[in-house]
Design goal:
The chain is α+β, with helices and mostly antiparallel strands. The chain has helices spanning 6-12, 25-39, 61-67, 73-84, 133-156, 182-185, 253-276, 285-300, 328-336, 384-413, 426-440, 457-461, 466-482, 507-527, 553-570; strands at residues 2-3, 19-20, 44-47, 53-56, 88-96, 99-113, 121-131, 159-163, 169-172, 211-219, 225-236, 242-251, 303-310, 313-317, 347-349, 357-364, 367-375, 447-455, 489-492, 497-502, 536-544, 575-577.
Length: 584
């Protein structure tokens, strides 16, 4: 007997120290080969030149199945080994009943005993096999995972990177990034790509701990700056030392610009809404201008002045003394001269050392009513048009509010019928309604007072041609006038508000009237080039007769006004009924 050495045991995968029969000539070697086949932990067998199996272990089924096909890679390996008379190794893929197996084969020429008691031997090829399926699958999974990572990066538009301990880029995604090819970035210090004012902050390219979503500015290949979202983790070598960092960069410049534009739009709409609210307070022109200047200045943290064209020249509201700017007066004069037309555009003055000064015309259609001047803390927006946009909306809204204040004041002063809409004005409507109530008495049949308001009218006027807005208001007033019956009263109360007395009409009749007016207004809007949803009608409804203490016109109007406020709180195109104390 012979003891197996460690080296032999390692090759044969046998426990060191196992006893094998000592070879004694050809017979002893043949017996040893048979014993090796029997003890081999993987598939093993011996075959002759006709591919007949002379010896096999319990694991050899995969090899025996392959040998049934004379053209199989195992059969070919046997023939090659016989022909060369030397050991051959080969990796093959075998398909058996148990599925696909990846196998590493070792074929050796030798002799094999014909039986345990037989003294005769036969020439054979001994095949030892090692199943590498698990290794192959793990390797393929690693390759697939790496390819998936590369594919996802190319689809996402991100790029991956890795730096060494000194912050030098040693890997960049094949497509590169920010206008650089991969080879233009590899080998350079990552800090070279950071904007100067970002280099003092923690450098994600030399991260010593995990960084998630750091925003930095990087230089693009064309010299512009990009805002970049960076995530990084440190690389720790096997010896525990810091080896650099790796991570992913994503260009978020466009996304951030869109977010900033949305914020500016929201601020602009809020500012316009605040200015629009001045229209319902019955303020004089100078008070509207003063409050508008305060609203704009507070909203944008800026000094604001408003200059209006008057019969005797330009009137200024300049609480912050912006007029001291040497170029301001000529600009105002140029923008408001009589021959100015719709071609006047906002103007940004940015003198070195001075605050940027923005001049925006206050428009009403093609007419220019004045100039809005804003001294900005800084011009944070590089696009002049984007910078001026919210102030243009505010100026146009102010133009509408000023015009309606003028029309409302003119309506209140005018006797009898309003010239523009051929309707009663507010004062004469009150007198006519008072006379109607006095003559009718509290026992009269049920009637209703409607306060109607066109939702979104003033906001739309800030965005469309003034003539179109006036046409819409005229057509709606004409519709109201033509739909009145004998005994009804109709008035324009200024802005986009109307009062309608429905004589001897129950609530169902009042609601039917409201719904018809809403439908008509949508058609009027569409006929004037607006979406039907742009304008709608809200209505407050007050019933009459009522308790004696509420029988006056002011009390009836107050009830209708409160109902209108309630309807507007519900949303656009709603109506609400006032419930009088003592019954309705």
């Amino acid at each position: 007997m012979v003891q197996v050495s460690r080296e032999t045991a390692k090759v044969m995968k046998l426990p060191a120290g196992d006893k094998l029969p000592r070879p004694s000539g050809e017979v002893g070697a043949a017996l040893l080969a048979a014993d090796v086949i029997g003890k081999f932990p993987g598939p093993a067998l011996a075959v002759d030149g006709d591919l007949k199996v002379l010896a096999a272990n319990v694991h050899a089924g995969l090899l025996e199945e392959a040998l049934k096909n004379a053209d199989s890679p195992v059969a070919t390996l046997v023939h090659r080994t016989f022909a060369h008379g030397a050991p051959i190794t080969h990796k093959v893929t075998l398909r058996g009943k148990a599925g696909v197996h990846h196998v590493e084969l070792i074929a050796m020429p030798g002799r094999i005993s014909r039986g345990k008691q037989s003294r005769s031997t036969a020439s054979a090829v001994i095949i030892l096999a090692r199943d590498t399926t698990l290794e192959q699958n793990l390797t393929q999974a690693l390759v697939d995972s790496r390819q998936m990572f590369k594919d996802l990066l190319s689809c996402a538009g991100d790029f991956a990177w890795e730096t060494d301990a000194g912050g030098i880029l040693r890997y960049v995604s094949p497509l590169g990034g920010f206008g650089y090819a991969a080879h233009e970035m590899t080998g350079r210090a990552a800090v070279d790509f950071l904007a100067e004012d970002d280099t003092a902050a923690d450098n994600p390219f030399t991260a010593r701990e995990r960084i998630d979503g750091a925003i930095r500015r990087l230089w693009r290949g064309d010299g512009s700056l990009a805002e970049v979202l960076i995530s990084a983790i440190p690389v720790i070598n096997s010896d525990g030392r810091y080896g650099g960092a790796r991570g992913i960069c994503r260009d978020i410049t466009v996304e951030r610009e869109q977010q900033e534009a949305m914020r500016r739009l929201a601020r602009a709409e809020s500012l316009s809404s605040d200015i629009l609210a001045l229209a319902g307070r019955g303020l004089r022109q100078r008070d509207i201008v003063r409050q508008a200047a305060a609203i704009i200045g507070e909203a944008w943290g800026a000094s604001c002045a408003i200059f209006l064209v008057a019969e005797d020249g330009v009137v200024a509201c300049d609480p912050h003394k912006i007029a001291a700017h040497p170029n301001l007066r000529p600009i105002v004069a140029a923008m408001t001269r009589p021959d100015s037309d719709g071609g006047v555009r906002p103007l940004l003055l940015a003198e070195p050392g001075d605050k940027p000064l923005l001049a925006v015309p206050i428009r009403l259609g093609a007419a220019i009513l004045g100039v809005l001047m804003v001294a900005l803390a800084e011009a944070s927006v590089h696009d002049d048009a984007a910078l001026a946009a919210p102030f243009e909306l505010a100026a146009n809204t102010l133009g509408v509010v000023l015009d309606h204040a003028r029309l409302t004041a003119a309506s209140a002063r005018a006797p009898g019928i309003d010239d523009l809409h051929n309707l009663y004005n507010g004062a004469d409507f009150d007198r006519a309604l008072a006379a109607r109530l006095e003559s009718a008495g509290p026992s009269s049949r049920l009637s209703h007072l409607l306060l109607l308001e066109i939702d979104g009218y003033l906001a739309a006027m800030a965005r469309i041609d003034h003539a179109i807005g006036e046409a819409i208001l005229n057509e709606f007033a004409r519709t109201l006038r033509h739909s009145t019956r004998h005994g009804d009263l109709l008035a324009w109360l200024g802005e986009a508000r109307f009062a309608l007395w429905l004589d001897r009409s129950d609530l169902n009749g009042a609601v039917s009237k409201i719904e018809r007016l809403k439908a008509t207004l949508k058609e009027i809007a569409a006929a004037n080039g607006l979406a039907k949803s742009t304008l709608s009608v809200s209505c407050g409804v007050a019933p009459w007769p009522m308790a004696a203490k509420q029988a006056s016109v002011p009390a009836l109007l107050a009830l209708a006004s409160a109902a209108l406020d309630e309807a507007k709180r519900k949303g656009r195109g709603q109506w609400a009924q006032a419930l009088a104390a003592g019954g309705a």
